[in-house]
């Protein structure tokens, strides 16, 4: 078996191929190649690795991971923790690598959590009598159109029955106003 560099060792390698997700680097002294993922090319966001490196470029890299997958040894490399001019280690205690790993593990998906605003939804305005807002937020003018929140599907039947009742009472109010004149 070929001698591989130790974990967290820094060496200068040559770019073998560039893909849309990173670059493969030839490791000196053996036939193996390691991948520098585009997230490990620079401390800034990299959209196209071909804008950073070209085939044949010499780059300083740090070996940050070894993994056996499908009977193949996969090597992970990083360029962002090594000064590309001098080859000096910018992260000698591997702090930023640990932080990157924590960021990956701590991602949570909050899309399934539903936010309910029952405190406001269940209120009735004292000024206009509509649901969903307070009197201080009411924008209805005297004698103007009343607006309220659109009810949920299960509340539509109840709201429809209430709307028909409101129409009947408003028609009765209009007829009583006409009689008074």
From TrEMBL:
Transmembrane segments: none annotated. One of its GO terms (cellular component) is ribonucleoprotein complex. One of its GO terms (biological process) is RNA stabilization. Gene3D superfamilies: Nucleic acid-binding proteins. It holds the Pfam family S1. Residues 158-181 are annotated as: Disordered. One of its GO terms (molecular function) is zinc ion binding. Its main location: nucleus. CDD domains: S1_pNO40. Residues 8-80 form the S1 motif domain. Residues 125-138 form the CCHC-type domain. Keywords: Acetylation, Metal-binding, Nucleus, Phosphoprotein, Ribonucleoprotein, Zinc, Zinc-finger. Residues 163-181 have a biased composition (Basic and acidic residues). It is found in: Nucleus, Nucleolus. It comes from the Eukaryota. PANTHER family: NUCLEOLAR PROTEIN OF 40 KDA, ZINC FINGER CCHC DOMAIN-CONTAINING PROTEIN 17. Interacts with PNN. Associates with the 60S ribosomal subunit. This is Zinc finger CCHC domain-containing protein 17.
């Amino acid at each position: 078996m070929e001698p591989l560099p130790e974990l967290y060792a820094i060496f200068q390698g040559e770019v073998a191929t560039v893909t849309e997700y990173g670059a493969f680097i030839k490791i000196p002294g053996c036939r193996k190649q390691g991948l520098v993922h585009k997230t490990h090319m620079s401390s800034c966001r990299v959209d196209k690795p071909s804008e950073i490196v070209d085939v044949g470029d010499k780059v300083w890299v740090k070996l940050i991971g070894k993994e056996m997958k499908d009977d193949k040894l996969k090597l992970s490399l990083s360029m962002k923790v090594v000064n590309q001019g001098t080859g000096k280690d910018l992260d000698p205690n591997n702090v930023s690598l640990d932080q990157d790993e924590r960021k990956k593990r701590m991602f949570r998906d909050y899309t399934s959590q539903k936010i309910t605003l029952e405190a406001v939804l269940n209120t009735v305005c004292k000024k206009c009598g509509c649901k969903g807002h307070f009197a201080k937020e009411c924008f209805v003018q005297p004698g103007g159109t009343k607006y309220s929140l659109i009810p949920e599907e299960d509340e539509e039947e109840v709201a429809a029955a209430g709307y028909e009742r409101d129409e009947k009472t408003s028609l009765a109010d209009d007829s009583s106003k006409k009689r008074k004149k």
